[in-house]
Structure formats: structure tokens, C-alpha cells
Amino acid sequence: MCLLLLSGVLQLAVAVATITLVLVTGIESILGLGPAIFLASGALAALPAGRLMDRLGRVPVIAGGFAIGAMGCAMTALGCSADSAPLVVLGFVAIGAMNGSVLLARTAAADMYPPERRARAISYVLFGALFGAALGPLVFRPLFAGKDLELDTLVIPWFAAAAIALCGVVVALLIRPDPRTIALELHAAGQVGEEPGPTASPAPVKEILRRPGVPAAVIAALGSFGVMVGVMNLTGYIVVGHHHEQADVFTVISLHIVGMYALVLVIGALIDRVGRRPSLIWGLAIMAASTVMLAWAESILWTSASLFLLGLGWNIAYVAATAELVTHATPVERGRLVGTTDLAAGMLGAGLALLGGVAYSEWGVAAVAIGATVAVVAPALAILLAPGRRPREALEPTG
Asked: Fewer CB atoms inside 10 A, N or C side of the chain?
């Protein structure tokens, strides 16, 4: 449910973040700055949010993230109403922080399952975001239908997004017991494929990153998430640039989210069966095919197909990467490991959104497509050519 509500809010951010900042500043050359602010703030929030999850529990961080996001959406609405760029920027920062915090909910899923079923467990949580694909068009498309895209048009949609985020606060606070509590109990009892005994103090992040299997998962997470969000956040401007209406953006983004989450239950089970390393490579390969399509796709149909495949490839690579990461961390290390990875991936996504915005302004959508393809092919080749290592399914407590 938390991912459903987050997905609904993010559809608005993805669809109009670029255009909101361009309208409030009047500077078209900064079209990639809006998504970059959003992504960078999410990345910067992920690491402290992960550490707080390890220390305080999963629920307080998720609820706090939604609260910050609600304030951010309201600030963005006020910024559009007052034609204030600083308010809009502050709003984007807060919305990004919400995304970085709430996405860590996938760590909570891993807390309750053994290593051999963790990809499937993560898929259960991510599946909720599928229904956000319906929530976005249901709420926001009528608010844009038949209207010229001006700052006044954006005020009510951003306030509606704030209301959705407030619902997220309520839902998060209803989660009982905290998944971290379950993880600690299972770890102490030796019921999650690990040695029984007390959970030791968390190892330094540098040490965790050197564990077998972690480097491949990290570079796959960086490539898949960075490219997915970088391209996704430029989609609104690309669609409008092809002379389609702003309301059509929600159709494309909705199908992208369907690609991200519709098959996640099947994909989670498949990853557990075929292995995480092959899944990392196949996910990145599908993303490469989708970004190649973006170079020539102009219609809503073909752009939607490209974004659908982008979401599907991300789904495979990202679930496999997350499952691999949490398998090599104890309950008091998972938040910081996933948070560190999200920090790096989010910053990469912000950089790609900025570069993509400049590339699109100067050379068009083909430049965005070529750059994105290179960015997912490179990690896929690195994983494919690296010596294969058997994942360590049993994690010994560190200390």
C-alpha cells in the first residue's frame, strides 16, 4: 500500500517536474534540472534514512518520508501559485527525500524471508506500486484534460499529490509489528538461513561492499536505477516535444509503471529459480533494447512500448540486485547497504537527467537514447565478463 501511494505521487512528479521548473523560471535549457533536484535529494536522503531504519526501525522512516513528501507537494503547489522558483525547488527537494526514504520499504520485505525467497519477498512489496499506475491517471489526468499547461494549472494537482502523501503517513503508521523486529527475532533464532545467535554490531560499509556478490549487485543497481529514472524523468518533455498533449504523458508513464511492477510477482519467483547474476544481465539487456527504441519512437504507442520495456528490464535487474544485497547483510546492516547503493544510484540518475536534458536540447532524443544505452550495456558487460562466483547464501554475523 505504501508503494501504491508513492507511485501515485511520483507519476505527477515524473510527468510535470521538468515543465514545472521551466514554467516557473522561464529557462528552457534547464529542463533536466527539475528531475536532477528530485533525484539528488532522494539519493542524499537514502543513506541517512537507511541508517535510521537500522537503528529505529522501518516504520518511523517510511512514515516520516511520506510526511516530508506531503510538505514538499504543498510547497510546490504554493510555488506554482506564487510563481516562486525557490518554493518549487524546495518542494522538489522534499518530494525527492520522500522517494528516497519510502523506497527503502523493500528492505522490510527482506527482513521476513529466508535468502532463497528474498527476490520473491521484495516483489510482494513492489507489486503494490502497480496499482499506483491506475491511481495517477485516475487522479491527475482529469485535472489536466482540456487545459493549457500554465502554472495555475499545476496548483491543484500538486495539492492533490500532497493529500495522497498524507494517506501514506497513516498507512505506514498502521504497520505492526515493525519488520526490523521480526528480522532480529528470526536472526537470533537462526530461522533465515543464518547462524543463530545475537546480531553483532554492523560492519563498516566498505567491508560490506567487498563481500562476494555485492559489487556486481551494486553496479547493476546503479546502471538500472540511474538510467531508468534519468529517462523516465525526461519522458514528459520528450512526449510534448513530439507534439502530443500533456495529458498523454500520463498514458506513457502509466504503462511504464505497469512494466515496472505488473510482472513483479512472476519475476521475483523466476529470479529465485534461475539465479541473481543471470537476472542482472538480462534485466540490463532488456533496458538497452528499450532505450534503442526511444531513438525512433514518436507515437504514443511506440513511446509507451519503449517505456514499458524500460520498466520491465529495471524490474528484473533491480529486484535481483536488491535480493543479492540484503542476502549479504545482517538485519542491522541492510538499511545502510541498500541506502548507500540508493545514494550512488540516485546521484547517477540525477547526473544522467541533467546530461540528458542538455543532450536533448542540443541534439534531440537520439542523443538521450544513445547515452542511456551505453549506460546500461557497460555494467551488463562488466558482470558478464567478470569471473562467476557462487552467492553466499548463509551470512555469518560480523563483529
From this structure: C
